[in-house]
Structure formats: structure tokens, C-alpha cells
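Regression test case RT-17, inverse folding.

Input:
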């Protein structure tokens, strides 16, 4: 038997490894899209390591169903919504589902299933936190205003989101004055402790709606600067948290959308700011 040429065994060993290497390459090709999607979701949804600082607290996303404006006024406030859609339901159900999952994942807070309630629902006082979207569309009856006032004075919190510009600000503060005619809206800016209730934030974020993002800007309807404002009780606790010139709901709703990778940086700050607001609400 003749001797193998120099390097012959190494050559044959490499040849035998070809099928294995081809299979490995094929597996990477198959898994790459899934791994990319997981990486994007992780970037969009911060706080993947749960902290137990707030174990024992309970929170449920409660969306407020309200009577919206009609006629000419509705045309000015809902030109981007459509008259077949109720503004109170904007971004549902993805927004509350995604935010609820993120609160559950990032914190030790016990999270309930999201629900929708009207202000005259007898279950309202079972939940400490309410979310109301597109508040410039609200039409509030006297009885609803009285119920909301009692809810807030008894320790509840109302969070407003997704309204923009001076016109929508005026409409929103008009019905807020029905609830609290004797209380002024105040700015809530750093270093207020709400900015480090869970995440460390040095400023209030402006989260663009997806439409604004497509148009290359973070603002809409002339609302160039985002603000967190509030109505406080006699102890200084914010009873109403007013997220103005920002669209937190779009940030949560589209956080898993792989087709919009450039939007993920906005979903990150939308989660961070709202989790801060929720944690602050539950601990104050």
C-alpha cells in the first residue's frame, strides 16, 4: 500500500466536513430572520431583566371609553382618524397589550388583562389608573365630571395621551375645567422624581406618531415641543398626567413591527416614560 501524499489525510478530513458545513450554513440562513426580529424587539422593548423592587403592586391598563365630539369640531380634531373610528379606541388593542406585557416583563408589578370602561361603569373605582387617548375629542357630562373628580380625589390617576398643538390643548383643558374648575395645570419637568421612578430619564420625550415618522418629523399639528403636565391634589400628587405633543400609544402599538426598524428608538422611550409614570402612580 502506497503512502498517502503529504497532507492527504487532512484533505480527506476536510472533504468529509463539507456536508456538515453546508448544513450549518443553511441553518444560519433559516434562523437569521428570526434572530434579527428578536434583536429588534429587544431593542424596542427595554427592561428585559425583571426587577423585584415593586413586588406586591398591582396594575391594569384601563382604557376610558368616552363620548366624542361630532360635526364641524370633529372634522378639525379627527381628520387623521376617520369618522368610522371612535377616537377613544385609537391604537387598541395592540397598544395596551404591548405595554402590559412590557410592564410585566420589566417590573415585578402584577399586571391584569387590559380592559375598557366608561366613566359611569360601577367597576371604575376598582382600578387606580385610567388611560384616555385623543382627549381633545372628549365630551363630558356633568355626572361624568363629578364621577371623575371623585375618582381622582380618592387617589386615582388619569393619564392623557396623543393630542397636539394649541387648538387641541384648548379643547382638552376646557373639559378638564369641568372636573377641577379650581385647580391649575402645572408643568412636570426634571428633576421631578417621576423621571427616575424606574428608568433614569433626563428629559421628557417627544414620541412621533407613525404618520409623522413617515414624514420625517417628530411633531404634528404645530405641537413642536413635548410636555408632561399635570393637575395636582392638595398633597402635590399628580392626579392627572397630561402627555402633550407626543404619541406614546403609537410607540407601544408599533413596537413589534419589523417593517419599521427606524421607529424602534421611539418605542424605547415611549415604554420607558410610561413605565416611569405607572410606577410613580402606584407608589405615590
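Golden output:
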Amino acid at each position: 500500500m502506497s503512502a498517502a501524499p503529504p497532507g492527504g489525510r487532512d484533505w480527506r478530513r476536510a472533504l468529509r466536513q463539507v456536508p456538515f458545513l453546508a448544513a450549518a450554513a443553511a441553518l444560519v440562513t433559516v434562523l437569521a430572520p428570526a434572530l434579527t426580529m428578536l434583536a429588534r424587539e429587544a431593542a424596542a422593548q427595554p427592561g428585559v431583566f425583571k426587577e423585584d423592587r415593586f413586588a406586591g403592586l398591582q396594575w391594569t391598563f384601563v382604557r376610558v371609553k368616552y363620548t366624542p365630539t361630532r360635526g364641524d369640531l370633529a372634522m378639525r380634531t379627527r381628520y387623521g382618524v376617520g369618522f368610522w373610528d371612535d377616537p377613544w379606541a385609537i391604537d387598541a388593542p395592540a397598544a395596551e397589550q404591548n405595554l402590559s406585557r412590557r410592564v410585566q416583563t420589566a417590573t415585578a408589578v402584577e399586571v391584569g388583562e387590559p380592559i375598557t370602561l366608561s366613566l359611569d361603569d360601577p367597576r371604575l373605582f376598582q382600578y387606580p389608573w385610567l388611560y384616555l387617548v385623543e382627549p381633545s375629542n372628549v365630551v363630558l357630562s356633568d355626572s361624568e365630571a363629578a364621577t371623575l373628580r371623585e375618582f381622582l380625589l380618592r387617589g386615582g390617576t388619569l393619564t392623557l395621551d396623543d393630542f397636539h398643538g394649541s387648538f387641541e390643548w384648548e379643547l382638552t383643558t376646557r373639559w378638564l375645567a369641568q372636573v377641577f374648575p379650581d385647580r391649575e395645570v402645572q408643568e412636570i419637568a426634571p428633576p421631578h422624581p417621576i423621571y427616575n421612578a424606574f428608568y433614569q430619564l433626563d428629559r421628557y420625550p417627544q414620541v412621533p406618531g407613525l404618520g409623522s415618522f413617515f414624514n420625517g418629523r417628530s411633531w404634528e399639528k404645530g405641537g413642536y415641543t413635548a410636555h408632561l403636565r399635570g393637575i395636582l391634589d392638595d398633597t402635590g400628587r399628580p392626579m392627572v398626567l397630561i402627555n402633550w405633543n407626543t404619541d406614546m400609544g403609537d410607540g407601544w402599538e408599533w413596537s413589534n413591527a419589523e417593517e419599521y426598524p427606524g421607529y424602534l428608538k421611539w418605542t424605547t422611550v415611549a415604554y420607558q416614560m410610561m413605565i416611569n409614570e405607572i410606577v410613580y402612580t402606584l407608589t405615590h
